[in-house]
Design brief:
- The complex is a heterodimer of chains A (238) and B (262).
- Chain A is α/β, with parallel strands linked by helices.
- Chain A is built from 8 helices and 9 strands.
- Chain A has helices at 44-51, 84-94, 99-113, 128-141, 158-171, 184-190, 208-216, 221-229; strands at 2-13, 16-28, 34-38, 59-64, 68-71, 146-150, 176-180, 193-198, 201-205.
- In chain A, strands 5-6-7-3-8-9 form a 6-stranded mixed β-sheet, with helices on both faces.
- In chain A, β8 (193-198) and β9 (201-205) form a beta hairpin.
- Chain B has one domain (8-259).
- Chain B contains 10 helices and no strands.
- Chain B has helices at residues 8-29, 37-54, 66-88, 90-93, 105-133, 143-170, 178-188, 203-206, 210-222, 233-259.
- The chains are: A alpha/beta (238), B mainly alpha (262).
Chain lengths: 238, 262
């Protein structure tokens, strides 16, 4: 269960504070996958990070008993002078995985990332594709009740994308996802509940289709079809 | 799988452990000499000061070799300096790590201070040992005093670092003055003198500095023939506890703002 209590979040701008949402109360039961949509700059990623306990709202709080992941595929925490293995071991340590369990996870990361011997080379020598592979492999190798996905399912080549698809489909059986995406097809496929961040604040819909309908209000019909079909170049699940 | 749920204490321990391993790798992995650098830095400082003061051609402090006298001041000051500089930039330089929800600036600062503290103790003991092996030694005085002083010193640096990590993040411009404050402190903290060398009329000004008391008391603990005549344990206790409380309060009042997107 993830409960939002009186959440308010605003950003400082040169023209005063911009309120993203105000006094939001909601309860998301266990087993619901949540899709967050809205325009660029509406605060989707911020909401995702607040729900994950990484960022904080101005007021209010998020109450949960679930283990929530870091944003999937995040590579900002990597230390360039350390090897991929050392970086992965650090993240394992943060999550209380040591010893034999750690070696098992590291094995899974190495196998999944398919970066071969580069796993033992400093991360600063990686290409950006390799970094994302490592980051993604690490995300799915550590087990959580709930994964945060922030439009990062676009890593790597076609082969790797296919692999990610399979793994996520597998994960969906045991874990939930909170997804920020612009690809409607992906949201429809993966999410049960929709959150729409519009200019008037935040609205929660029981089905993701309702949220998509709200989001697409005002778009010309042809445009709707196009977004509904998704953008196959960017998304794993399209 | 890793489906065990951890207590807050276990999480804290795991985070600190992971950070400590990471800090060790990044701090020592960068340079060719790696771990030797821990000893080289204070040793070089000491050599410079010894070279300068041996021109004076006399025993700097009766009964204590000049090298040891300097070491007793340099080692604590280097620890203090590391805490000071590193904690000012602690939030900015660890920004990427705060995407892991269990890792907050507190953990980064505390781990860093603890690591620096261990390095300081290790380098002090190792250099004393090396010097003794070469015949530069003085009679040891009081182990318990050293333990007490170092616990207080650790508390002081911890409090200061927590306050500075908040300060450095909230006022990045003001943080540029950090090194400017640190340099005069080097000259005011008794790194290369004892309060006994200073005319008594200046004592009221200098003795406000807790660092001076740390260094005086460290020397008193180390060397039997050193009399920290003007060092005040009570003042050190008060300033350490005060600084620790202040640092914790400042951090407590600001910690969400350090991580929060504005």
């Amino acid at each position: 269960m993830i409960e939002l209590r009186n959440l308010t979040k605003s950003f400082r701008t040169p023209h005063g504070r911009k309120v993203l949402f105000r006094d939001v109360n909601a309860v998301f039961p266990e087993g619901k996958n949540i899709g967050i949509l809205g325009r660029n700059g509406a605060g989707k990623s911020t909401l995702l990070r607040i729900m994950g306990g990484i960022d904080y709202p101005d007021t209010g709080r998020v109450v949960t008993d679930q283990r929530i992941s870091w944003p999937m595929g995040l590579s900002g925490g990597f230390q360039g002078s350390m090897t991929g293995r050392e970086n992965a071991a650090f993240v394992c340590g943060l999550h209380g995985i040591w010893g034999r369990e750690k070696r098992k996870v590291l094995g899974r990361v190495q196998e999944f990332a398919e970066i071969g011997n580069y796993f033992d080379a400093p991360v600063k020598t990686y290409s950006s594709g390799m970094r994302s592979r490592l980051a993604f492999g690490l995300s799915i190798s550590v087990d959580f009740d709930c994964y945060l996905v922030d439009e990062v399912m676009s890593v790597g080549d076609a082969h790797f994308k296919h692999k990610c698809q399979q793994v996520i489909a597998e994960k969906r059986k045991t874990s939930n996802f909170i997804i920020v995406a612009h690809g409607m097809e992906q949201l429809k496929k993966n999410c049960d509940v929709g959150i729409y961040l519009g200019p008037e604040g935040l609205a929660i819909y029981d089905t993701v289709e309702a949220a998509i309908a709200e989001y697409q209000k005002g778009l010309p019909q042809a445009q709707k079809k196009k977004t509904a079909a998704g953008n196959p170049g960017r998304l794993v699940n399209s | 799988m890793n489906s065990i749920s951890r207590t807050p204490w276990q999480i804290q321990r795991d985070v600190m452990h992971a950070l400590l391993v990471r800090e060790m790798k990044t701090r020592f992995g960068k340079w060719r000499l790696g771990y030797a650098w821990v000893l080289l830095e204070p040793a070089m400082h000491m050599l410079v000061l010894v070279a300068v003061f041996s021109f004076l051609g006399r025993e700097f402090y009766p009964g204590i070799p000049t090298a040891l006298f300097m070491l007793g001041g340099i080692a604590p000051f280097l620890f203090f300096g590391q805490c000071f500089t590193k904690s000012l930039a602690a939030v900015a330089s660890n920004r990427g790590l705060f995407s892991y929800r269990q890792l907050r600036p507190f953990d980064a600062v505390v781990t860093r201070v603890l690591l620096e503290f261990c390095i300081y103790l290790f380098s002090l003991v190792a250099l004393l040992g090396i010097l003794a092996w070469f015949g530069v030694a003085a009679t040891f005085n009081d182990f318990l005093l050293l333990v007490a002083v170092n616990i207080l010193f650790l508390g002081f640096c911890l409090g200061l670092s927590l306050a500075l990590c908040v300060f450095g993040e909230r006022f990045p411009e003001a943080a540029k003055f950090g090194p400017m404050i640190q340099r005069p402190l080097y000259f005011m903290s008794g790194v290369f003198f004892s309060l006994e060398h200073i005319p008594e009329e200046y004592h009221p000004y200098l003795s406000w500095n807790p660092l001076l008391h740390v260094i005086e008391l460290t020397r008193e603990g180390l060397f039997a023939s050193y009399h920290g005549m003007f060092a005040d344990m009570q003042y050190l206790v008060m300033s350490s506890v005060g600084m620790l409380a202040f640092g914790l309060l400042v951090y407590r009042a600001n910690w969400r703002d350090l991580v929060r997107s504005q």
